[in-house]
Amino acid sequence: MPAGARLTTVEEVREDGSFLFTATNSFDMDEEIIVVPCDEDVAADGGTPVDDEGGVAAWINRCTHEAQRFDTGRGVPMRDGEIICPKHGSMFDACSGDCDNGEAAGTTLPDVDVAVADGAVYLVDDDYSFEHDGGIDDGDDGPSSTSHVGF
Ligand code: FES
After folding, report:
1. The organism sits in which domain of life (predicted)?
2. Residue 140: is its pLDDT beyond 90?
3. Closest to 35 (Cα-Cα) out of 106, 143, 123, 148
4. Average pLDDT of 101-111?
5. Backbone conformation region of residue 53, classed left if phi is above 0, alpha if psi is from -120 to 50, else beta
6. Domain that holds residue 94
7. Percentage of the chain surpassing pLDDT 70?
8. What total number of domains does the chain contain?
9. What distance in angstroms lies between residue 108's CA and the mean position of ligand 1's atoms?
10. Is 66 touching ligand 1 by the criterion CB < 6 Å?
11. Residues 6+ away with beta carbon under 8 Å from 74
12. What is the CATH number of the domain that holds 71?
């Protein structure tokens, strides 16, 4: 088992389309990170050797063009193995993070290392410490937090 926080499973990422979590970076700042399905045999710098089930890759949840979030709370918009920026529509390869079109052409998403073992996805990047599932705001413990309350 990799030494790192267990995030989710490959199956859940595939079922839900993506997985969003918040981690602290080496500057002690919160970053949102997305985990997306990646079907290449070996993910590029996303770092995940994959088996027959396919794999996943993880990226900072921010477009390289104008700091637009990909996942704004409703999952990552994707089509044909590419992440779609909701602002201007540039598409990034889910495995390599590369963009060759639109406003963000010629850029690559900053990657985050994850590993898969027994179908589970682990955060194994020394630059990031897992904080919680969901976006940065989902970690607030304020009175409006009702995530575990049923009505
Ligand atoms: S903000 Fe993503 S392409 Fe412009």
Report:
1. Archaea
2. no
3. 123
4. 97
5. alpha
6. 5-136
7. 82
8. 1
9. 12
10. yes
11. none
12. 2.102.10.10
Tell me the three state secondary structure of residue 13. helix
124: tokens are 């194994």
Q: What are phi and psi of 65, to 5 degrees?
A: -85, -60
Pocket of ligand 1 contains residue 104 by CB under 6 Å: yes
* Bridge partner residues of 116 (DSSP): 121
Per the listing, tokens 């399905």 go with 37
Distance CA 151, CA 10 (A): 31
pLDDT of 43-59, one tens digit each? 444 554 544 446 999 99
Report CA(21)–ligand 1 centroid distance (Å): 21
Reading phi first (left if > 0) and then psi (alpha if -120 to 50, else beta), residue 26 is in alpha
Task: Please state the rounded mean pLDDT for residues 107-122.
Answer: 95
**77 CB under 6 A from ligand 1?**
no
- Beta bridge partner(s), residue 31: 23
Give the number of C-alpha atoms closer than 13 A to the C-alpha of residue 128, restricted to the C-beta side: 26
Q: What is the pLDDT of residues 69-90, one digit of tens each?
A: 999 999 999 999 999 999 999 9
d(C-alpha 55, C-alpha 49), whole Å: 7
Q: Could you tell me which residues are beta bridge partners of residue 84?
A: 91
Rg (CA), the chain: 15
